[in-house]
Amino acid sequence: MRTDKKWELRLYVAGKTERSVTALTNLRKYCEEHLKGQYRIEVIDLLEKPQLAEGDQILAIPTLVRKVPEPIRKIIGDLSNEEKVLVGLNIIPA
């Protein structure tokens, strides 16, 4: 499937826990501030689709996976440290 979005992000969660909701809220905020109009977020709830954890080798949740641009990068946690997230995703240089 071809997409005009530059960044493809996948957030793995387990239900609507406080950490999962916080991670998604933080991710949306950072994307709107730094990648406006250039991103797509896919949220995967492992309580509903546990088989999807294996493909991206998810060992903890919440976990954010940057699929595109490559290389794939992962960040674990509620994404509350904005600088760590932006550097980890290579949105801003280290």
Automatic annotation (TrEMBL):
It comes from the Bacteria. SMART domains: KaiB. One of its GO terms (biological process) is rhythmic process. Residues 10-91 form the KaiB domain. Pfam families: KaiB (PF07689). This is Circadian clock protein KaiB.
